[in-house]
Structure formats: structure tokens, C-alpha cells
């Protein structure tokens, strides 16, 4: 893949595990809501989960922590985010793969996670990346084909010079592929033989 100049990574499910965000949405917010309303944690968790489902993951608000803190009237999310920093974790091969690729390609992050969560999520691996793009925070959209085109414009690269890898079939694979980016789907469950099962395989793909 001699034409590839930029390797783009999704964040959650690709570089970082879901531990941090799951803790935020299903522990941190319910705890604050329970305290505010004077109700039990289980009841608060059921109420917040029901509201998340009502909005759904095809709308921007679903991803926007500031929206939910305003909706539930919880104040600023920053103290809670800082308190859960220790829940951030990366998949075992991530640091080694990033270290190997960073000398040969420009590495970037293209994520649908808002910056409020993305910044602490990437804190320990941020030096590997030339740029970090949040479709929600920077462009107020999901990871649409238009988002990927905007990303290419900012980095000064043609879509055909970019390889993007992520775990969402729709937002990472299909939508980047539609604009001519070399799209790679990551399925860590191993259930899809046509997908990568970890990022170590990405090195072999790029070497081909």
C-alpha cells in the first residue's frame, strides 16, 4: 500500500476499550442523578438508560455528554470525567502498533466521541497522533461521508491516500469507503473472517 500516507483510527472499540465510556454513562451519570433526585441507584440507572434509548444512536445528542448533563440538570461533567480517568484502558497491542506505524505514516484519530470524553480517553497515547478529529465536537455531525471528506481536506490528503480502521460497520467502514478512503473493519470478536480481529493484522495489511 505504497499510496497510503495517513492511517486513521476510530477511538473506542479500536484503540481504547469501552470501560471508560460505559462507566460514565451507566455509573457516573446515574450516581449523580440518583443523588440529585434522592432515589436509589438502580432506579436512576433505569431512568437514564431509558432516556438514552429514547434518543438513539442515530442522533447527535446521544453522544453529547453536555446535552445529557443539561437534560438531567447535573451541572458540569468535568469533575466526574476526571474522577473516572483510571477507567481508561487500551487493547493490548495498541501501543506497539502505534509505535511501529508512527515512523512510516501520519497517524490521526477520527472519532464520533465528543472531545470532553475523547481527550481523557486518548491522554496516554496522544503523542502518536498528528491530529484528533471529533465529528461531534468539530463538525456537529455523526461520522458521515462528509466528515471524512472534511478530515481529508484538513490533512491535505486525497481520500485514496488514507486508510481508516474502526469497529463500526456503518460509521467507520461504509461511510469512509463511500468517499474513496481505504476502509478496514475491525471485529475484535473474531466473528467476521473478512474483518481484522486486532490491530496487529493492520501492520501486515499495510505491508502488502
Characterise this structure.
46% of the residues lie in helices and 11% in strands. It is of the alpha/beta class. The protein contains ten helices and five strands, in the order βαααααβαβααβαβα. The chain has a five-stranded parallel sheet. The mean pLDDT is 94. It has two domains: 6-17 and 90-207, Rossmann fold (3-Layer(aba) Sandwich), CATH 3.40.50.1000; 19-86.
Topology:
Elements: E1 6-9, H1 19-37, H2 41-55, H3 65-71, H4 78-83, H5 94-101, E2 106-111, H6 115-122, E3 131-134, H7 135-139, H8 145-155, E4 162-166, H9 169-177, E5 182-185, H10 200-207
Parallel strand pairs: 1-2, 1-4, 2-3, 4-5
Helix pairs in contact: 1-2
Structural class: alpha/beta
Number of helices: 10
Instruction: Specify Rg, calculated over alpha carbons.
Output: 18 Å
Give me the strand/helix succession.
Answer: EHHHHHEHEHHEHEH
Strand order of the largest sheet: 3-2-1-4-5
Number of strands: 5
Based on Cα principal axes, name the global outline. elongated
Distance between the termini: 6 Å
CATH class of the largest domain: Alpha Beta
Identify the CATH architecture of the largest domain. 3-Layer(aba) Sandwich
- Proportion of residues in β-strands: 5-15%
Low-confidence stretches: none
Instruction: Count structural domains.
Output: 2
What is the CATH topology descriptor of the largest domain?
Answer: Rossmann fold
Quick one: biggest sheet? 5 strands, parallel
Q: Let me know the CATH homologous superfamily of the largest domain.
A: HAD superfamily/HAD-like
Percentage of residues in helical conformation: 40-55%
Amino acid at each position: 500500500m505504497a499510496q497510503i500516507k495517513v492511517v486513521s483510527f476510530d477511538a473506542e472499540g479500536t484503540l481504547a476499550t469501552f470501560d471508560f465510556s460505559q462507566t460514565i454513562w451507566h455509573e457516573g451519570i446515574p450516581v449523580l442523578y440518583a443523588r440529585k433526585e434522592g432515589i436509589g441507584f438502580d432506579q436512576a440507572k433505569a431512568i437514564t438508560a431509558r432516556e438514552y434509548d429514547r434518543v438513539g444512536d442515530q442522533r447527535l445528542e446521544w453522544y453529547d455528554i453536555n446535552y445529557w448533563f443539561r437534560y438531567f440538570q447535573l451541572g458540569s461533567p468535568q469533575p466526574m470525567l476526571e474522577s473516572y480517568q483510571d477507567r481508561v484502558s487500551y487493547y493490548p497491542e495498541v501501543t506497539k502498533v502505534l509505535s511501529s506505524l508512527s515512523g512510516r505514516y501520519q497517524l490521526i484519530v477520527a472519532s464520533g466521541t465528543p472531545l470532553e470524553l475523547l481527550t481523557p480517553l486518548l491522554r496516554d497515547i496522544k503523542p502518536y497522533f498528528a491530529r484528533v478529529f471529533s465529528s461531534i465536537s468539530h463538525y456537529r455531525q455523526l461520522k458521515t461521508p462528509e466528515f471524512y471528506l472534511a478530515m481529508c481536506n484538513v490533512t491535505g490528503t486525497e481520500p485514496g491516500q488514507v486508510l481508516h480502521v474502526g469497529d463500526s460497520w456503518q460509521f467507520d467502514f461504509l461511510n469512509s469507503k463511500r468517499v474513496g478512503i481505504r476502509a478496514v473493519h475491525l471485529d475484535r470478536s473474531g466473528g467476521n473472517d473478512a474483518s481484522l480481529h486486532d490491530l496487529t493484522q493492520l501492520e501486515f495489511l499495510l505491508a502488502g
